[in-house]
Amino acid sequence: MSADRILLTNDDGIDAVGLRALRDALADEYDVVTVAPTGDCSSVGRALSDGATVSEHELGYAVEGTPVDCVVAGLDELVPDADCVIAGCNEGANLGSYVLGRSGTVSAAVEAAFFGVPAVATSMYVPGGEDWWKRELEAGEFDHAARATRYLLDNAFDAGVFEAVDYLNVNAPIADGDRAPMRVTRPSDWYGMTAERDGNGGVTFDDPIWGRMTEADVPDPVGTDRRAVVDGEVSVSPLSVPHDVATNGALDGLAERYGDRE
Asked: Keyword Lipid metabolism, does the record have it (predicted)?
């Protein structure tokens, strides 16, 4: 199998700089049709709407909905002959197992996998601690992410990558002029979310990892996605769906005894 027609989506919105950077990197060789949200849908996970308004856009289609809405609408109606879904490039990294389910970018790739369509979710780590999201990004800063995505799209099908996995979660460092090396990784299992009452009847949440994203302080070993981007590498995690079902003798026993209880 090879890829000719690409469905491009994201969760930052169809006019995001990162999406344009990916499209520019792919459009000279591939038929790229964009089906992306009209606005920012970050961290919505696999939220699905009852329906969504679709408008024609110079890049393809703008959808008033979530990234998963875009993939379902795209693969089942708007671009049913797409060979691959590319999601991104997200402005901000999507690193660690606990992030995968809440990321709109990664969720678009997961939805594609359920359609049987290979996918690549691409995100870019933006340094700057907890204030990273305030940074105004330019297209050239996505060069590592765009180059890596193009390389994988050009080569992964012929290499048989998608015969073994459903999607690739790619995280790249911000471009600094030098080509970043690529490392195959696993999602980090480090988790540090906290909750604290705010004194006004609410609870505030904090993910302390952003304050630890330095070479000396990141709590992850070599081989994990977070370690790779901090080390200036492009992280590629080969992932599959659906969730695995593990054999569990204890649960089997409970189920067998269930009918015996009043």
From this structure: no
Residue 11 marked ligand-binding: yes
Give per-residue pLDDT as tens, 144-174. Answer: 999 999 999 999 999 999 999 999 999 999 9
- The answer to whether the annotation marks 178 as part of a ligand binding site is no
Report the CATH number at residue 152.
Answer: 3.40.1210.10
CA dist 137 → 143, 145, 163 (Å): 12, 13, 35
Model confidence band, residue 1 (pLDDT cutoffs 50, 70, 90) = low
* Confidence label for 11 from pLDDT (cuts 50, 70 and 90): very high
The annotation status of 244 as a binding-site residue, yes or no, is no
94 is in an annotated binding site: no
**Three-point CA angle 54, 58, 60, nearest 5°:** 50
